[in-house]
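Hi, here's the filled form for the chain we discussed.

Project: internal
Contact: R.S.
Residues: 112
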Amino acid sequence: EVQLVESGGAMVQAGGSLRLSCAASGFTFDDYAIAWFRQAPGKEREGVSCISSIHGRTYYADSVKSRFTIFKDTRKNTLYLHMNLLEPEDTAVYFCNVDVYWGQGTQLTVSS
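And the returned structure, exactly as it came back:
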């Protein structure tokens, strides 16, 4: 059974940093691309960043490029999203995704 468990969400001030984690199980970590999505109140879920399966290529939404870094630890089957220079517009529930599977999300709130 595939499980994705996000953690690390918090309330932070604008300009701050935070790291989200996604602990994965039930599949071979390096066989799939894994992504972070987010959903702000009243908005559709949007892709934030993705890391490819074997080569670890990374992709970012324009709104987070140069501020966020996605990386994974294959030994721990854990995906991370390190976020710098946080803005109130980053406030959302952040979800981990692989194939058709989603975690339950973790809340990030950025205060101005």
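Let me know if anything looks off before we file it.
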